[in-house]
Write a structure and sequence with these properties.
Helix content is about 40%, strand content about 15%. It has about 425 residues and is an alpha/beta fold. It binds pyridoxal-5'-phosphate.
């Protein structure tokens, strides 16, 4: 039998860190990753045959569980007609109709191949449409690995960007202004000073890449007003929240209308897909309708469109989001009760099918609070859960995801594992 350890040894010789995306490597929690042999419903099985209840869901896409027959059969049907055409295909039109119907702020959409491509393209459009160069992002928010986004705040509420990664030119990072998430006064001050130079403000409307931090009441509305006042395009990065926190995304959940929206994850049904869209007059500026260039060899791929469309069909079932939110609540309330019973300082956040766990006694609203929580304790808890067959995201700074395939029994099993894992982690 091939073991996880053997595979990781080989992988490390062949791929940087043994993986094709960094967080999979377990660097943050320590230890070695497992290698998945197959996935079905709420579960993953590794190459050694061990089963895990999965709360990562391929980092968000698998909202109906893994290997759902409706999605798989749609892909099988599509594959029979060829893998890629390089011409327009009917499924792209259906996809665009579906997205524009489900998300009223979007009149027109462009399909791409990842969330990274979607956000890179959206800020190019913002710059092209406004004739301005600066963009604003939030400390702790992740928008893929485009140069403009690999920037974090320096000290102080508003600073010019400092590249987080070697290889990002300082000149590029200088154009990215960073702000603290959930601090409207800091945003007002920044806009007072630089408002006329800012093309777009991009935000995860529920932050999901510094654990899970929902916006404070009125925060997104406040940003909307600021952007409108200063002629700045408001970009909601809904790569994670889109079709996750509500059918219409965070913009529907909070009732705030962005100028541009980016998607990924769920709209691909597990295939590599992204999209960006917005008002017609903005999207008409994209090539070939307009002068702002953006293209893709495999964009609108017929197999990926089939997977995404099948997924979008499933999530429109009546009561889907109510049930998903109820399951998520069962999990987070249950974990809170277990932690309280074990005498551990612990808090949770949750919106729809997305949740965050923090080893701290306070409710977490900010990046500073998220990073101040006890990450060493989280890491021990993570490994305790993994041992007991529950796979949480391998980092204290990632959101968790519940799918419609998670049963009440899965949640009960998770809570039982959590009791033992918390007890062991505390010691
Ligand atoms: N935006 C957000 C909010 C994300 O969470 C991610 C990925 O996790 C991205 C963008 C980048 O998407 P991708 O990994 O598909 O490039």
């Amino acid at each position: 039998m091939t073991t996880n350890h053997e595979l990781f040894q080989r992988a490390q010789q062949l791929m940087p860190g043994g993986v094709n995306s960094p967080v999979r490597a377990f660097k943050s929690v320590g230890g070695e990753p497992f290698f998945t042999a197959r996935a079905d419903g709420a579960y993953l099985w590794d190459v050694e045959g061990k089963r895990y209840i999965d709360y990562v869901g391929s980092w968000g896409p698998m909202i109906v569980g893994h290997n759902h027959p409706h999605v798989r059969e749609a892909v099988e049907r599509a594959v029979k007609n060829g893998l890629s055409y390089g011409t327009p295909c009917p499924a792209e039109v259906t996809m665009a109709e579906m997205i524009t119907r489900l998300v009223p702020s979007i009149d027109m959409v462009r399909m791409v191949n990842s969330g990274t491509e979607a956000t890179m393209s959206a800020i190019r459009l913002a710059r092209g449409a406004t004739g301005r160069n600066k963009i604003v992002k939030f400390e702790g928010c992740y928008h893929g690995h485009g140069d403009s986004f690999l920037v974090k705040a320096g000290s102080g509420a508003l600073t010019f960007g400092v590249p987080t990664s070697p290889g990002v030119p300082k000149a590029n990072a200088d154009l990215t202004l960073t702000l603290a998430y959930n601090d409207l006064d800091a945003a007002r001050a920044l806009f007072d000073e630089y408002g006329n130079d800012i093309a777009g403000l991009i935000i995860e409307p529920v932050a999901g890449n510094m654990n899970c931090i929902p916006p404070k009441e009125g925060y997104l509305q406040g940003l909307r007003e600021l952007c409108t006042k200063h002629g700045v395009l408001l970009i909601f990065d809904e790569v994670m929240t889109g079709f996750r926190v509500a059918l219409g995304g965070a913009q529907a959940h909070y009732g705030v209308t962005p100028d541009l929206t980016t998607f990924g994850k769920i709209i691909g049904g597990g295939m590599p897909v992204g999209a960006y869209g917005g008002r017609r007059e903005l999207m008409q500026q994209i090539a070939p309708a307009g002068p702002i260039y953006q293209a893709g060899t495999l964009s609108g791929n017929p197999v990926a469109m089939a997977a995404g469309l099948a997924m979008l069909e499933l999530i429109q079932a009546p009561g889907f989001y109510e049930q998903l939110a109820a399951r998520t609540r069962l999990l987070t309330d249950g974990l809170q009760a277990v932690a309280d019973g074990e005498g551990l300082a612990f808090s949770t956040n949750r919106v729809g099918g997305m949740f965050g766990l923090f080893f701290t006694g306070e409710k977490v609203d900010t990046y500073a609070q998220a990073t101040a929580a006890d990450t060493a304790l989280f890491n021990r808890f993570f490994h305790g859960m993994l041992e007991r067959g529950v796979y949480l995201a391998p980092s204290a700074f990632e959101a968790g995801f519940v799918s419609s395939a998670h049963t009440e029994q899965d949640i009960a099993d998770t809570l039982e594992a959590a009791r033992a894992a918390m007890r062991a982690a505390r010691a």
